[in-house]
Amino acid sequence: MGHGEREEDMKVWIDQDRCTGAGLCELLEPIVFTIGEDGLAVVHDGDSVLPAGPAGTVTVSPENERQVLEASQACPGRCIRIDSE
Ligand code: SF4
């Protein structure tokens, strides 16, 4: 693993079972997160909204990674799942 090099893409999905729908994620990173019609968080992939759960995994643009990480740490349900692989 190199230092300061981008080895892996960051991927993110929402575990809706734990989501409170309070919308902190959308507040922190509206490019990636949104509150869906059922009142729970989902992720965007460009203009489309992905399904809930691991099926709705999106690759995060490098410029959004920091905010996604911040949202995952702030999320009260601990339901923002980040994979780096
Ligand atoms: S911050 Fe977490 S609990 Fe709140 S809406 Fe987003 S995913 Fe759900």
TrEMBL record:
Keywords: 3Fe-4S, Electron transport, Iron, Iron-sulfur, Metal-binding, Transport. Its cofactor is [3Fe-4S] cluster. This is Ferredoxin. The keyword Isomerase does not apply. Residues 10-38 form the 4Fe-4S ferredoxin-type domain. It comes from the Bacteria. Gene3D superfamilies: 3.30.70.20. Signal peptide: none annotated. It holds the Pfam family Fer4_15.
